[in-house]
Design goal:
The chain has helices spanning 11-22, 55-65, 79-84, 86-106, 140-158, 190-198, 226-241, 259-270, 294-300, 309-326; strands at 2-6, 27-31, 46-49, 67-72, 111-117, 162-168, 170-172, 204-208, 220-221, 223-225, 247-251, 257-258, 275-279. The protein is of the alpha/beta class and 330 residues long. The longest helix is centred in the N-terminal third of the chain and has 21 residues, at 86-106. The two termini are 36 Å apart. The protein binds nicotinamide-adenine-dinucleotide and galactose-uridine-5'-diphosphate (GDU). Homodimer.
């Protein structure tokens, strides 16, 4: 009953692999290492270096390892990059997800868990945003993920195929045991950038937009610890294995923090007072987005354990310091 984790050499995927192995599962990772790292896959998981769009390769992995469940993280993830390269994003996120799903249906995969995103909502009318809110992505990244969600829903209606799509809000933090963390060089995510600046890897950082209609003028996001997020996947897997129906769940804490509040938290956790420059808005950013999280709590019994901005920033800083020491990624 091996689980195929696509994108398992990446930030969230590597935490998923650790959680699965900790739970005694057998894991095979398929990753093209475009943004992931070979070292991020623990030796007791099998790593196949290749592309999710390579159907013959996926077929052979499913056959060889007796895969019954797929957790699909592989994709391109940067909102502003998707604005300048929409076709690249539709190709990697939508077209290749379709290829993967086609093999999943053909090979009788019973459980499929998909990494969706809060970006499918765009700028929601009501906050916290519920799963049944209008879907109006503001970036090709969000659209590329929404199109995959639509394909999943249609496929589940037509075939013996069940899925859970998890709409992640802003994922941050690192493995509490210090085994993995966000390692992407030239990362663009706020907490990662702030941690790099706190540790002197960058001379300063920027705040993108101070004229949003929020209390302090900067964007509000719901930051979820990566370990709580992968535990939501474990709950989704149990749900599907028990014969549960296809569902879509938000993954967030229902708590919003502004960009300036996050930077303050990183300053407090690190004790470093670094330079912060106020800059114009970045393309594709909604002003505020916070998850309604009652559905996942109720249906999957998910209970977060690390829902504090301080815990997230302290562990993200610890991982950043580890990276600097060992120069895993540069
Ligand atoms: N990080 C976030 O805040 C966030 C929020 C919402 C959703 N997500 C989603 O979660 C998933 C994982 O994100 P992450 O932050 O771990 O990013 P990441 O870049 O660290 O991981 C993505 C992994 O997928 C691999 N990959 C990319 N395209 C591939 C392909 N065609 N074939 C095989 N492997 C491929 C990369 O090498 C990498 O290891 C993505 O689907 C992303 O859209 C992330
Ligand atoms: O150096 C930085 C980096 C970010 N920001 C701001 O911080 C906020 C958060 O930005 P991130 O880049 O950390 O995250 P996003 O909200 O753009 O996107 C993330 O969350 C989305 C859902 O909300 C998607 O899931 C997406 O995959 C994931 O990258 C935004 O207002 C952004 O403009 C800065 O001010 N300075």
């Amino acid at each position: 009953m091996t689980i195929l984790v696509t994108g398992g050499a990446g930030y969230i995927g590597s935490h998923m692999v650790l959680e699965l192995l900790d739970s005694g599962e057998s894991v095979v990772v398929l990753d093209n290492l475009s943004t992931g790292f070979r070292w991020a896959v623990p030796p007791n998981a099998t790593l196949v270096v290749g592309d999710i769009g390579d159907q013959e390769l996926v077929r052979s992995i499913v056959r060889k390892h007796g895969v019954k469940s797929i957790i699909h993280f592989a994709g391109s993830i940067i909102v502003p990059e998707s604005v300048v390269d929409p076709l690249g994003y539709y190709h990697n996120n939508t077209v290749k997800s379709r290829a993967l799903m086609e093999v999943a249906v053909e090979m009788g995969i019973e459980n499929f868990i998909f990494s969706s995103t809060a970006a499918v909502y765009g700028m929601p009318k009501e906050i916290p945003v519920r799963e049944d809110a209008a879907l109006a992505p503001m970036s090709p990244y969000g659209s590329s993920k929404l199109m995959t969600e639509i394909m999943l829903a249609d496929t589940a209606r037509a075939h013996n195929f069940r899925y859970v799509a998890l709409r992640y809000f802003n994922v941050a933090g690192a493995d509490p045991k210090g085994r993995s963390g966000q390692s992407t060089p030239q990362a663009t995510h706020l907490i990662k950038v702030a941690c790099e600046t706190a540790l002197g890897k960058r001379s300063h950082m920027e705040v993108f937009g101070t004229d949003y209609p929020t209390a302090d003028g900067t964007c509000i996001r719901d930051y979820i610890h990566v370990t709580d997020l992968v535990r939501a996947h474990m709950a989704a897997l149990r749900h599907l294995r028990a014969g549960g129906q296809s569902e879509v769940f938000n993954c967030g804490y229902s708590k919003g923090f502004s960009v300036l509040q996050v930077i303050e938290a990183v300053k407090r956790s690190s004790g470093a007072d670094f330079e912060v420059r106020l800059s114009p808005r970045r393309a594709g950013d909604p002003a505020a987005i916070v998850a309604a999280s009652d559905k996942i709590r109720m249906h999957l019994g998910w209970r977060p354990e690390f829902d504090s901005l301080e815990t997230i920033t302290v562990q993200a800083l610890a991982w950043e310091a580890h990276l600097q020491q060992f120069k895993h990624a540069s």
